[in-house]
Amino acid sequence: MALGGMFRNAAAIYLHLVGPFRGKKSGASLARCLHQTLAMTKRLQARRLDGIDHNPWVEFVKLASEADVVNLGQGFPDFPPPDFAVEAFQHAVSGDFMLNQYTKAFGYPPLTKILASFFGKLLGQDIDPLKNVLVTVGAYGALFTAFQALVDEGDEVIIIEPFFDCYEPMTLMAGGRPVFVSLKPSPNQDGELDSSSSWQLDPTELASKFTSRTKALILNTPNNPLGKVFSRAELELVASLCQQHDVVCITDEVYQWLVYDGCQHVSIATLPGMWERTLTIGSAGKTFSATGWKVGWVLGPDSLLKHLRTMHQNSIFHCPTQAQAAVAQSFEREQLHFGQPSSYFVQLPQAIQRCRDHMIQSLKSVGLRPVIPQGSYFLITDISEFKSKMPNLPGAADEPYDRRFVKWMIKNKGLMAIPVSIFCSVPHQELFDHYIRFCFMKDESTLRAMDKKLQKWKDELRP
């Protein structure tokens, strides 16, 4: 009876599946029916992906690709790395054939050695290349490794906004809770351009964000998108609160060489008592204008880095050897020239400051009000005047104005920027929806193409 029942059940299932196709010729229809019946119904995505699946970058890059647009939105140089870096990469590819193979999991030894030597002097620490350096897949990989290694379910992470937009989703993916505190501009003299230096943290507000659940604070100096370089006094405030509340400081310093107008970059790890609780993140892509190489690093005490190494060895294991070898050779060259006129770290910011100044003057010509950045690839510009004159741009009713403005600008003016509201928490977007971000880390030909677009715009504004 049991066997007969089993056959009857199998026959019933067969009739249920093929019944609709009896007498039909299409085998493909039967295959589709079987696929639909057997398709998975369980939830597929992990809950840590909830709410972070939409990426505005994809939307704006797609819009820009569909028109004749000068791309001033994405943060990458459109000019080559320095000759010595390119030659180092070519040598790594064509020289020692063993560079095609695995290297040490936590970093190619010549690279970890030169990073330890180079940054040890800058940070005032005796850095052990085996214990205090971890090489990662770009600074992005360094950030992700740090969040996954240190942030636990329910931990709070203080994020200073506007912020590089991966900080919030990386916190959420680790199970943490982002806690936001905003930089706010100080009033300036009428007619004068604002400066990123005038954007300040309120000390009382910042202190109020620390609780017993605070695990980490993420600092970005020079800041993306604002271009602010935090002063020593501001860093001392952050350091004091981190020590008072026993909090880790994750400091993203990828633009440390790109500072302007005589401004000085200060690493928070150099302040008293901060090396022991700070992870300092850097990027070869930003350092040598080679963002596609994807070589980054984390420097810090072994008590923190040992947890990042655990995460690293159980995820990517190690980074491409040849790119690491090229970065090592480039740093060795820079160490010999450090502080001299021949140093790339001296020459690059001088050249890029001229690009920054060019863009500032050009944007002013059409009524935009740039905020003069102290560092980084970027400046933000105030579009309040346009918000007053053109308040009803197309777009969803709840869509921040800066996003609608950028879409309008891409379509009608042939210029791409990035809305600053994407660098902010949702509750605070209205504080920043009258700013857009431009990248001035561009070749002279790109800036000339920008000028042509802006001149046409300027002509249209004339009565």
Automatic annotation (TrEMBL):
It is found in: Cytoplasm, Cytosol. It comes from the Eukaryota. This is Kynurenine--oxoglutarate transaminase 1. CDD domains: AAT_like. The gene is KYAT1. Its cofactor is pyridoxal 5'-phosphate. The keyword Lyase applies. Gene3D superfamilies: Aspartate Aminotransferase, domain 1, Type I PLP-dependent aspartate aminotransferase-like (Major domain).
